[in-house]
Recover the amino acids of this structure.
């Protein structure tokens, strides 16, 4: 039996601010537990929240980048429930008045570009972090009150690949504009995925299951694909899919039930009484939108049209913002954008991966990359010789100076190469006979002999050309 798969995703994304959503306590990843919290975060009597202006600015940037309509009237609500990670007994959120509605993000699919609609973006505060041990649990309130935006999609995705592409497009966009560091492995971007299936063509959606707190893009695709197959087996066994909250076990590649849902929880929402509605000035919103950083989609189109790079290379390059920013610096010193892209995506990336470094944590200089490319383009060194300079390049050394010290300068002197070619030809009469008999591989053999004689320093193209000229003279 065939099924229609329906997927919606809710993403919680911590905003990149120095202080919390409603207090002056510092945001705190990696800090000692319970050292970045104050009386406002804990909801002590007599304390009053104050809205973080920078968090609102970043929420507006996110809404703009994702094409949402912005509500200039900011209102907050209380979501009431008691849980150990919620120190106040309620969460300040935007249930009824989200800052943005009705946006979209475009993803690439095998059938072409597809728009995934975004229902809303709202601001709220994060909860504390729990650590469940064998006999008790520990709580770190450092995270409590950290500014969040929640991004709620429409159920427009239909397989794991689309879900992955959607989250990656959001991650890339929010990271490029500086709204969040989007480090899923650190919890600053967390995904809850809702999956349901129904018989193909059905007008009624199936019972949805929520997969909580997925912390990597690859896990999203695997969790969705497993959950779809699990629900199919349930239905085909004549049973009903029950509404559940599940988690993804990365070791087994399966989803596991956490709890059943009998119905919707009544959070008894009501307007937050300690934060009056705030009317955002239109000119302030317009100023934020006028000074938005370049979006990754815009950068991609620019690279394709301006530098003639392949779509494959551009997609890999812009996936890493720091690498793409470094590329921008390199092409200030060279017009050979294709070579710059190739070096960054191949030998330089390989070195960074092998040494567990990022491009901004090593000695690599953009002008030195451009200088290395110029040395190759001018025939002063070969590609093979250039590869021997990667360690020097990554240490911040001048590639031309390093090439001289290592004796890697390419020999392009026509007289010297002609002399070596004739010595090799005189020593290999059989190769000359093979060439006369139409065996073209003889040229490759002779080229190799000349390169060996020159200790790899002869210009290969000039060697090949000279060999063919001299062979034709001897026929």
């Amino acid at each position: 039996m065939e099924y229609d798969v329906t997927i919606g995703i809710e993403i919680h994304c911590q905003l990149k601010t120095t202080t919390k959503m409603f207090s002056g306590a510092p945001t705190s990843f990696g800090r000692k537990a319970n050292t970045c919290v104050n009386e406002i975060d804990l909801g002590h009597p007599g304390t009053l929240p104050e809205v973080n202006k920078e968090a609102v600015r970043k929420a507006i940037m996110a809404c703009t980048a994702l094409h949402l309509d912005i509500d200039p009237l900011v209102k907050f609500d209380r979501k009431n429930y008691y849980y150990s990670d919620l120190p106040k007994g309620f969460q300040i959120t935007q249930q009824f008045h989200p800052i943005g509605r009705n946006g979209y993000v475009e993803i690439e699919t095998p059938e072409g570009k597809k728009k995934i609609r975004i229902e809303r973006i709202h601001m709220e505060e994060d909860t504390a972090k729990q650590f469940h041990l064998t006999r008790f649990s520990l709580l770190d309130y450092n995270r409590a009150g950290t500014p969040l935006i929640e991004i709620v999609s429409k159920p427009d995705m239909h397989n794991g690949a689309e879900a992955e592409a959607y989250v990656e497009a959001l991650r890339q966009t929010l990271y490029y504009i500086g709204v969040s560091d989007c480090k899923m492995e650190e919890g600053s971007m967390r995904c809850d995925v809702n999956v349901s299936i129904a018989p193909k063509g059905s007008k009624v959606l199936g019972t949805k299951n929520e997969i909580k707190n997925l912390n990597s893009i690859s896990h999203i695709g695997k969790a969705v694909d497993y959950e779809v197959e699990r629900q199919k087996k349930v239905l085909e066994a004549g049973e009903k899919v029950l509404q559940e909250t599940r988690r993804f076990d990365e070791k087994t590649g399966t989803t596991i039930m956490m709890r059943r849902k009998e119905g919707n929880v009544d959070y008894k929402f009501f307007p937050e009484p300690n934060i009056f509605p705030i009317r955002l000035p239109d000119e302030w919103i317009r100023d934020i939108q006028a000074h938005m950083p370049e979006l990754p989609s815009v950068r991609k189109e620019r690279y394709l049209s301006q530098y003639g790079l392949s779509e494959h290379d551009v997609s890999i390059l812009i996936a890493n913002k720091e690498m793409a920013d470094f590329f921008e610096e390199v092409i200030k010193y060279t017009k050979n954008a294709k070579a710059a892209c190739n070096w960054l995506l191949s030998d330089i990336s390989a070195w960074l991966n092998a040494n567990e470094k990022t491009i901004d944590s090593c000695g690599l200089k953009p002008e030195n990359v451009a200088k290395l490319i110029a040395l190759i383009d001018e025939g002063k060194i070969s590609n093979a010789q250039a590869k021997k300079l990667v360690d020097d390049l990554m240490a911040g050394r001048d590639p031309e100076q390093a090439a001289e010290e290592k004796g890697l300068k390419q020999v392009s002197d026509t007289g010297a190469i002609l002399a070596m070619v004739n010595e090799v030809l005189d020593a290999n009469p059989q190769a000359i006979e093979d060439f006369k008999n139409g065996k073209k591989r003889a040229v490759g053999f002779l080229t190799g002999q000349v390169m060996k004689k020159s200790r790899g320093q002869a210009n290969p193209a000039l060697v090949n050309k000279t060999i063919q000229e001299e062979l034709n003279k001897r026929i």
Notes: DSSP finds 16 helices and 16 strands in the chain. The radius of gyration is 30 Å. The first strand starts at residue 3 and ends at 14.
